[in-house]
Design a protein that fits this description.
Blueprint: E1 2-4, E2 10-12, E3 19-23, H1 27-33, H2 38-47, H3 49-58, E4 63-70, H4 78-102, E5 106-111, H5 119-131, E6 137-145, H6 147-160, H7 167-172, E7 184-187, E8 206-209, H8 219-230
Parallel strand pairs: 3-4, 3-7, 4-6, 5-6, 7-8
Antiparallel strand pairs: 1-2
Helix pairs in contact: 1-2, 2-4, 4-5
């Protein structure tokens, strides 16, 4: 398959894009632009998740990781935190469980420390994970997640088991163990930072930063990000044969 790109050149999509992660930024600014409370932006943002997952699935991506709530987000006003927690619970209870029952290719995993979550939400996460595992399309929801915290926890688990402190052993004890590392990481909302997200897993990910606020993110933006990914050369520290030595 070929894709159009800037300047009219053709880009070959070779199927190497299999795993995408998204920093879903811009809910609050989306609401502010419309003179609405920040909570309205979070509600709108939650409402587009299924459409985004469906688009990526149709394009052959089999793993999508969404940054829903970080370990630092607890610093936000209580009303905003409570709204986010309630929206996630509602999304899992009303949308995800139904989808798992109807779509035999879909499952959801959670990245992060569930212990700090409200008990009701924590129980719902466990219920969702136990309903289906190892299906063809995986959505990872990063919830109470921090990249540094994840690495510290993994290293501590390796040490506790008396294992050598190798990359393989650390990777095997991360929240993402068993799922592919992201080929592409997208950040919406116009900011150029990674916000403690998938620090270990993103060692060779391609990053695309776009101005679109998360509630407005859709097919046009996804197509742009995929084209941008395929326009780049991924060398993983090496050289192509045609590169000068």
């Amino acid at each position: 398959m070929t894709l159009g790109a800037k300047g009219g050149e053709k880009i070959k999509a070779d199927g190497s894009l299999r795993s995408v992660a998204i920093i879903m930024d811009g809910n609050g600014r989306w609401a502010k632009k419309r003179l609405l409370p920040r909570t309205a932006g979070h509600k709108k943002g939650a409402g587009i998740i299924e459409n985004v997952l469906n688009i990526f699935k149709e394009k052959g991506i089999n793993c999508v990781t969404l940054y829903a709530f970080s370990t630092e987000n607890w610093k936000r006003p209580k009303i905003e935190v409570d709204t986010i927690m309630n929206l996630i619970y509602k999304y899992l209870d009303e949308v995800v469980i139904k989808r798992i029952k109807e779509d035999e290719n879909f499952c959801m995993r959670f990245l992060g420390d569930k212990n700090a979550l409200p008990e009701k939400l924590r129980d719902k996460c466990i219920e969702v994970e136990e309903m289906a595992k190892d299906r063809a399309f995986v959505c990872n929801l990063a919830l109470n997640y921090g990249g540094r915290d994840e690495i510290v926890r993994a290293a501590a688990a390796v040490a506790e088991k008396g294992l050598p402190m190798t990359e393989e052993n650390i990777s095997a004890h991360l929240y993402t163990a068993g799922t592919p590392e992201p080929d592409l990481i997208i950040r919406t909302g116009g900011n150029y930072r990674i916000s403690n997200f998938l620090l270990w897993q993103s060692a060779y990910s391609e990053y695309v930063f776009i101005d679109t606020l998360w509630p407005d993110f859709g097919l046009k933006d996804i197509d742009f990000c995929i084209k941008e990914f395929y326009s780049r050369k991924r060398r993983f520290g090496g050289l192509d044969k045609e590169d000068d030595l």
